[in-house]
Predict the 3D structure of the following.
Amino acid sequence: MRKKQKPLWYLCAALVILLIFFLFPVYWIFVTSLKTRVQAIALPPVWIFRPILSNYIKVFSEKTFIRAFSNSLVISVAAVFLSALIGIPAAYAFSRCKFRFKSNLLFWILSTRMAPPIAVIIPFFLLFKDLRMLDSHLSLIVVYLTFNLSFLIWLMRGFFEEIPQELEEAALVDGATDLQAFARIALPLAAPGIVASVILSFLFSWNEFFFALILTRKVAQTLPVMVSGYIGFMGIEWEKMSAAAVAATLPVLIMSMLVQKYLVRGLTMGAIK
Amino acid sequence: MILQRKSFLVLALPALAVLVIVSIYPFVACVNNSFRFYDLTRPSEGKPWVGLTNYGLLLGDVRFWHSIKVTLYFVAFGVGAQLLLGFAMASLLNSLERVSKVILPVFLVPMVIIPVVVGLNWRLMYDQTLGIINYLLNALGFPSQPWLGSGFHAMLSVILTDTWEWSPLVFLILYSGMKALPTEPYEAAKIDGATGFQILTNVTLPLLKPVILIAILIRTIDAFKWFDTIYIMTSGGPGMATETASMYSYLIAFNFFNIGKGSAFSVLMLALVNVFCVFYARIIPREGGLG
């Protein structure tokens, strides 16, 4: 691309405006979570104040929050683990085989990922209602397989395709079976891709709201649903809602920063590398 | 070919079996239910076969067409704004190479925050009396606006929040596309004395076309299905001003408990998304990615 020797001042000004636009909302919810109730709804807004942690202490001493946090953790980990367990071998199989209708099969896998959630959830809601499994961890884990599995297969296939096949071929010559070549050579080489895909998969599960809203009530309620319940208290407990929101977001925010290199790749299903 | 047929099946079959169950089952059930009278509030009536009645009901429903219109607005103006802003951001950071490395992670934040939290946060900021946005407007001498209070404003607010959340994705897609552009066409254009605008329309945009298409398709598919922030900020209101197709289909199935009509709605949405998907699969090059 063209090289500009020194950044012009108006470019820098535009950059500052962009940064304010994208960062201010994040900053605002964070500082609100550190305010007292009076400060949180004060007009004019309080810009300089002594931050307090009592909102976080209150949130973490609430049973519903702790339960939602552990529900989110259990459901996301289980869904991602199961998806990775069967999805990663399948991704490898797709990257190392050629057969008729392969692209049709892959398209079908992509389309399960793209399907409108409402089309997925009505049948599952009815099924789990009949099985008396509404508001259970297992129901949500099963539904989360729908998007995690197709995501992992599609993304990991791309990572495996980037690994040169020669190493595996050499192992075959040395007498290893093809499954051994997968487990001992391809799998370790794909480790960075696996870590990235698994973390992104976890992020999607953790942030998921629509399915959880419909399938859970109390026992298996996840964090996004629990936090959305603060709407009822709008205007009364802004500071507490903000603290819960920040606490719910922070774990995945940190994790996704670790794999930022792969974030766009994941969000575009591997179309952009 | 490294894998033998048997090993392929060993590796791929479990995943394919689960995928068949979790994707074919809902699809078949959905289509089946869409042909039935199926109302959860009237269990005594069973679920008799009614043919295309649900589709007829839907197509004769003013609220259905209204939700389609709202969805089109949301997708067209939202994705349009995100493209413009994303492209501006990509061009900007592309010419500020030294700072872009440091600043890039900042733009990842909006899209990894829980969408529910994004919605709640903007709802606080949009608040008509206590919100920070109206306070800042007043401070600059402008009158307060009913951000989530009037139909026009609510639509604007929902689109603005979506733009905040997803412009960064468009930006990153276009940015990685720009990074991969060849330098020769630019040098040639410069020698020929092309203006900045001519370079943009005759060199950059044509070269970026595949990447721009990916950004448009990804965002269109997602915006078409979007639910979370709309549900949190307006729940489709005020009135039905922001009631998108996903919002209305949710209400039909889970507020009015009309499973038959909701399923018919789902089938229509599924068909539409699949059309986008076909385009998407076409532009993803066979051997992996772009950029």
In short: Chain A is about 75% helix and 0% strand. Chain A has one domain: 58-267.
